[in-house]
Write a structure and sequence with these properties.
Helix 1 packs across helix 14. This protein is α/β, with parallel strands linked by helices.
């Protein structure tokens, strides 16, 4: 068995962590085991599951606030455990910090994995970007756009899909009816969003589009699943534009596939994404998706509409009213699997890579 050290920053409710955990759950842990670096001092969402599966979690100082302490502790962990494979997950070229330490420790395989097409600290990204490829042995990305963002135009970037546990998202009419009843949405046209309540997700555009839609479709209702720093101001804005009574803010949940089954349309107006895993999940439940053209999410089911953020909210609302739908939403998962987003198949691909590179160098 080989142990791979995954550097993820945190183990909470975020897309990057969800992707890594999807792979971890579907890899044969008798052959490949994951250990994790987290900068969170507190217990997080996936901690118990990781420990139960035999993984280790190392808590380090904040890489942003205490970079030298972070790198010093990372060096100790790598040397103590003699890792031969380090897998660094980041949204920017700041992965250089981890790669330099791994290189200094003599790690054979140093993988940089890009999960986004923008980051919060741009100066750091552009400062590190010219050097990051010098310290990596392999480059992964969730999309070609995410790969170019960190690694530039190279022909050696391997794409690993933000794959999902497909059967979990298979549409079930009984679940849909149950959830719509529980949320008093039985006779409503439901537009939903799932994600972090952060400026990246462009939720003011979501609410403006909902307001425009409400003027055209009286039974429209709106659902936001997730938590984040913008929650209070989004409530205030929804009240200001007059749709607060038609809006459900459900917070973070562990039953997202079931909640999605209660939606009629998925609305995702993000300013940027590495891929947009949640749009893949929404498609798996058979939802038509209206997304920003800044989101490189694949149109796996043929029911995805990409719109420019330069278009008006009224135009977005009109597009929602004109979406196509599946006759049988349960058929959608076939398109997800054939499109390469079935985690069982993608995990085998990653496992084979680890085993090959460890054996052959």
């Amino acid at each position: 068995m080989i142990r791979v050290l995954h550097i993820v920053g945190s183990l909470g409710y975020a897309g990057l962590e969800a992707v890594v955990m999807n792979y971890y759950r579907n890899i044969d842990n008798n052959q490949v085991q994951f250990d994790f670096i987290s900068c969170s001092p507190e217990k997080q969402r996936y901690d118990d599951e990781i420990i139960e599966k035999g993984g280790k979690i190392y808590r380090l100082p904040s890489r942003n606030r205490h970079p030298f302490a972070y790198m010093r502790e990372l060096k100790k962990i790598i040397n103590k455990n003699k890792y031969s494979v380090i897998h660094i997950h980041q949204n920017s070229a700041s992965m250089l910090m981890d790669a330099v330490v791994a290189k200094y420790c003599g790690v054979d395989t140093i993988i940089g994995h890009s999960h986004n097409t923008r980051c919060n600290v741009l100066w750091q990204h552009y400062l590190f970007r010219p050097f990051v490829n010098l310290f990596l042995t392999h480059r992964f990305a969730c999309s070609s756009e995410a790969g170019k963002w960190v690694f530039g135009n190279r022909n050696d970037i391997m794409i690993f899909s933000n794959a999902i546990d497909v059967p979990t998202y298979r549409f079930n009419g009984l679940i849909r009816n149950e959830y719509r009843k529980n949320f008093s949405l039985e006779d409503s046209f439901v537009v939903g969003f799932v994600g972090r309540l952060h400026e990246q997700k462009n939720l003011y555009r979501f609410l403006d589009t909902c307001c425009a839609l409400k003027k055209q479709k009286n039974n429209a209702k709106f659902v936001i699943v997730g938590e984040g720093p913008q929650e209070a101001e989004l409530k205030e804005y929804a009240e200001k534009i007059g749709i607060i009574d038609d809006l459900l803010l459900l917070g973070k949940r562990d039953d997202v596939p079931s909640v999605m089954m209660a939606f009629d349309v998925f609305l995702f107006p993000s300013l940027y994404e590495g891929l947009g895993l949640v749009a893949v999940e929404a498609q798996a439940t058979g939802l038509p998706c209206v997304v920003s053209d800044e989101v490189p999410a694949p149109n796996l089911t043929g029911l995805e509409i990409k719109l420019s953020l330069d278009e008006s909210s009224e135009f977005w609302a009109e597009s929602i009213l004109n979406v196509k739908t599946f006759e049988k939403r349960e058929d959608a998962i076939e398109y997800i699997t054939s499109g390469g987003y079935d985690i069982e198949l993608e995990a085998v691909k990653l496992q084979e890579f680890y085993l090959y590179i460890t054996k052959n160098g």
